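Section 5: illustrative case.
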């Protein structure tokens, strides 16, 4: 076998890679902590209230000792059941609320090929692809415990975009999977759903829990993956055009209170340009203009 000359990697390149890896690891850890806190804090409040009620009832029958024992038991049971329901049933309920169905084996071939290549590049497992039968062009990704993440796309996404544009949109969503933003999103939806079903404004609550500039940051990382920011910029502009042309058809997030809560999670979260642009880095048009300058 011929000898191969080893070419040393410049120190500045190694330092840059190390810095990026450290930043990515910190982002993942932060998103995981926030997701756990969202679920645990809400469930704890409910469990404590249930424990107080259960203890009071038991105290009327068996005295103080029985009240304490019953209260603690109720807290533990309600806590475990609550965490399980929010983590395991949350994403499934969201997907059902959108009316999404599994993509057929021969459906969306171009999208599947691009997604597989990007998953290998980014370093994530291939998601399950589900389709909302809507003529618009949009997508969102959600995490599921111990299962592949789910990528939900509208039926018109693949046909509305060029290959370069579609690659940018998919990279945007898969970057979120990589950074575990989809876990945080699933937790935000889970804790918001009960209130959204009663009082509405679920999208505002989810947006507040996730924090600002979420979509903007995902764009920047996705552009670095595909190495062509103008492609993603063109995709975002195209999403707005398609949303305007399909406006008579109810958007996927208009199919009920839980579905409405997903609005901030879509690649184009504003649809037909009905959200103020000023000071909003997550506005689709603002993001497109920023990427076009890069």
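Designed sequence:
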């Amino acid at each position: 076998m011929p000898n191969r000359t080893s070419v040393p990697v410049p120190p500045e390149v190694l330092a840059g890679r190390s810095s990026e890896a450290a930043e990515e690891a910190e982002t993942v850890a932060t998103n995981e902590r926030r997701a756990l806190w969202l679920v645990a804090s809400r469930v704890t409040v409910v469990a404590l209230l249930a424990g107080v009620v259960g203890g009071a009832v038991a105290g009327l029958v068996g005295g103080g000792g029985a009240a304490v024992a019953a209260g603690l038991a109720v807290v533990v049971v309600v806590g475990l059941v609550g965490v399980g329901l929010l983590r395991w049933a949350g994403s499934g309920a969201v997907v059902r609320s959108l009316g999404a169905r599994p993509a057929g084996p021969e459906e969306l071939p171009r999208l599947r090929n691009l997604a597989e290549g990007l998953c290998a590049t980014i370093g994530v497992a291939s998601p399950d692809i589900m389709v909302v039968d809507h003529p618009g062009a949009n997508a969102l990704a959600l995490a599921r415990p111990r299962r592949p993440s789910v990528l939900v796309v509208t039926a018109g996404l693949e046909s509305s975009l060029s290959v370069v544009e579609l690659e940018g949109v998919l990279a945007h969503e898969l970057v979120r999977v990589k950074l575990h933003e989809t876990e945080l999103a699933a937790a935000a939806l889970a804790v918001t759903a009960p209130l959204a079903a009663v009082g509405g404004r679920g999208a505002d609550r989810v947006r507040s829990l996730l924090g600002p500039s979420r979509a903007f940051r995902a764009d920047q990382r996705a552009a670095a993956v595909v190495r062509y920011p103008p492609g993603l910029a063109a995709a975002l502009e195209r999403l707005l055009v398609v949303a305007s042309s399909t406006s008579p058809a109810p958007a996927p997030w208009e199919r009920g209170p839980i579905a409405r809560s997903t609005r901030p999670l879509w690649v184009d979260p504003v649809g037909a340009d009905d959200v103020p642009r000023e000071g909003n880095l997550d506005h689709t048009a603002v993001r497109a203009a920023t990427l076009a300058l890069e």
